[in-house]
Design brief:
It contains ten helices and three strands. It is mainly alpha-helical.
Length: 215
């Protein structure tokens, strides 16, 4: 018999329960299982695990699912992804949040999705009145992806959306938003360095570069 798991504090079946698509719930369960299995394989399943993680983050699969026995788990609806990551198996991933962040750091696109999904529950009071709900497991320095996610989320959400979609890197979005200066990498070989500089400096900017080099 199918058993439903309502939200914490709820004495009766949620009114929205009947509107959930069983197919969507079942696919969520499969996606979560694929991630857990590939993540547990360590180095042999990195690419598969990263792809699975991106999928469940985009689809928000952790919010509710139906397992192979027909049991529905809905207690994560309205909660941040971190709640599912740290919950005990089989409901969650039974994994420290810092470990998932470190794993996602292998792929900038995945890390951006993860940090945004890792924010606290909707409606939870924010500390000191500030929107600062992303985990502090990575220092929010000016060059970190976590810092970029925070800055873009608060001041350029449309660019953050493009980062999530894989259209831009977090660094490129920061440059487009004017939060970072664009930089280039120069070879130590004088001839190669000169060719690269000529591709990026023209007109008055080239004259200014030559002037500074001659000082």
């Amino acid at each position: 018999m199918k058993s439903d798991s309502p939200l914490p504090g709820s004495e009766q079946e949620p009114s929205w329960l009947s509107s959930l698509d069983p197919g969507w719930l079942a696919s969520n369960y499969e996606a979560l299982e694929r991630f857990r299995q590939s993540y547990s394989r360590g180095t042999t399943g990195i690419e598969t695990a990263l792809g699975s993680l991106r999928q469940i983050l985009r689809d928000q699969s952790w919010r509710g699912w139906e397992d192979r026995d027909g049991n529905r788990v809905l207690r994560f609806r309205g909660k941040a992804f971190r709640a599912w990551v740290e919950a005990e198996y089989p409901d969650g991933c039974n994994t420290p949040w810092d470990a998932i962040v470190a794993f996602a750091n292998k792929d900038p696109e995945t890390l951006v999705l993860l940090l945004d999904a890792g924010r606290e529950e909707v409606g939870r009071p924010e500390a000191n009145g500030m929107c600062d709900n992303v985990t502090h497991s990575l220092p929010p320095t000016g060059n970190s992806t976590e810092y970029a996610v925070r800055r873009l989320r608060d001041h350029a959400p449309e660019l953050l959306g493009r980062v999530k979609a894989g259209e831009l890197t977090a660094h490129r979005a920061m440059v487009k938003a004017g939060f970072r200066e664009e930089t280039i990498t120069i070879s130590k070989d004088p001839e190669k360095a000169a060719r690269r500089l000529l591709r990026h400096f023209q007109g008055e900017r080239l004259e200014a570069l030559i002037d500074h080099l001659q000082r």
